[in-house]
Write a structure and sequence with these properties.
The structure is a single chain. With 259 residues, the chain is an alpha/beta fold. The protein has 10 helices and 8 strands. It has helices at residues 46-50, 53-56, 83-98, 115-126, 152-156, 162-167, 178-187, 205-217, 233-248, 252-256; strands spanning 2-10, 15-23, 32-37, 62-67, 108-113, 133-137, 193-199, 223-227.
């Protein structure tokens, strides 16, 4: 396989951004694509540096894109850049113009950890015509979009007021709100397949359980699992193969490797 370190100018963010792309050696292009998002304190290089993601996809006809997300939660910030539009419109267009990616909804998958877990689910629900499936590992669902305790935003961010700049004072019902977006996607008949997991020692466990319960109450189909582990790379590296298997279970790529 090939690992490409790509740098390009985002017109939405008005700055240079980077991403890693893993190109498969198995199968024939165009390929299905897995957009894999990093957490708040990381950057686009961290999945490569801290996990065995290259090894896990070595025999799969799957292209993996690991983009730069900065600290924007992959949503259009209330007082800041439009990270949601950058991801949901600009980035996908750039990837599909420059790499051998399939352009069908069912061939696009998205996942991430912590901030990236929230971002993956949020993007898939805001742009349900783009993504066939989404997953989250220990997602940062601690904010007003689904409730959560008031001390969690301060624990999650080191910068006073940062979460308010991202989400604003009233995120419930907005495009930051996972539940509101899920209801819209379901009404549109385009709900992507959702997979959520969280470690039983993860400090965001209560927020993930709360989201799971809320999705159940709204009758939004999803898979939710808990495993031993904390909010750390040992957990995320151990469980990203399960997420990949989930994405490919109903796909042409999955059928080609016997999933």
């Amino acid at each position: 396989m090939a690992l490409c370190d790509v740098h390009w100018k985002s017109g939405v963010l008005m700055k240079q951004v980077g991403m890693y792309v893993i190109l498969p050696e198995t199968g024939q292009p165009p390929f299905e694509t897995y957009y894999l998002l990093h957490g708040l304190s990381d950057d686009y290089t961290t999945w490569i540096r801290r996990t065995r993601i290259e090894w896990y996809v070595r025999n799969l006809p799957l292209m993996v894109v690991m983009p730069e997300g900065l600290r924007g939660f992959y949503t259009d910030n209330n007082a800041g850049p439009a990270y949601g539009r950058y991801m949901g419109e600009e980035l996908i267009g750039f990837v599909e113009r420059n790499f051998p990616a399939r352009r069908q909804r069912e061939a696009r998958h998205i996942g991430g950890l912590s901030m990236g877990g929230y971002g993956a689910v949020r993007l898939a629900l805001q742009f349900p015509h783009l993504f066939g499936s989404a997953n989250s590992h220990g997602g940062a669902f601690m904010r007003g979009p689904i409730g959560g305790t008031k001390d969690q935003p301060d624990r999650f961010s080191s910068f006073p007021g940062e979460m308010e700049q991202v989400f604003g004072d009233k995120p419930v019902g907005s495009d930051h709100d996972i539940l509101a977006l899920a209801q819209r996607a379901r009404t549109a008949g385009a709900l992507p397949r959702l997979y959520l997991d969280c470690g039983t020692e993860d400090y965001l466990l209560s927020a993930n359980r709360e989201l799971h319960a809320a999705l159940d109450m709204l009758d939004v189909s999803h898979t939710y699992k808990e495993f031993p582990g904390a909010h750390d790379w040992d957990y995320w590296d151990r469980h990203v193969p399960e997420a990949i298997a989930f994405h490919l279970a109903e796909s042409a790529a999955g059928r080609s490797v016997g999933m």
